[in-house]
Write a structure and sequence with these properties.
- The protein is mainly alpha-helical.
- It has 5 helices and 2 strands.
Length: 124
């Protein structure tokens, strides 16, 4: 299990429709200006190439050769829309059927929570 702000998050399998286990996880990072700013920086560096700068997604995903990259700002959450589910997708990726890579070990868990906070500020 991964400890996040006193909440245990077992390694959950990302699934369409969301993860009940991940949905129970509370975001331990305050969504303040500093976190949101850092989240935007991480998003721009690691996520925008597939999901685009506005997070609206794109057909073809990375290099236009993969499956579509999810629209992260519409009302349809492919893998759940709670903070815990967003964290689980970013951390664990969506493999093997989709090309959303795992960011565990690429950026810190704190950085992933910053990205979650940034995504929560976006609107379609």
């Amino acid at each position: 299990a991964l400890l996040l702000g006193g909440t245990a998050l077992a390694q959950v399998r990302t699934q369409r429709g969301g993860s009940p286990e991940a949905a129970k996880v509370t975001n331990p990072t305050a969504a303040d200006k500093t976190s949101i700013s850092r989240g935007k920086e991480y998003y721009d560096e690691h996520c925008a190439s597939c999901h685009k700068a506005d997070a609206a997604g794109v057909e073809g995903g990375m290099g236009e050769s993969g499956p579509p990259a999810s629209n992260l700002i519409d009302d349809h959450a492919d893998f759940g829309d709670s903070d815990g589910e967003l964290f689980a997708v970013i951390r664990g990726g969506v493999l093997p059927d989709l090309y959303m890579p795992m960011y565990e070990g690429v950026i810190s868990d704190d950085a992933i929570w910053d990205v979650v906070n940034y995504l929560n500020t976006l609107e379609e």
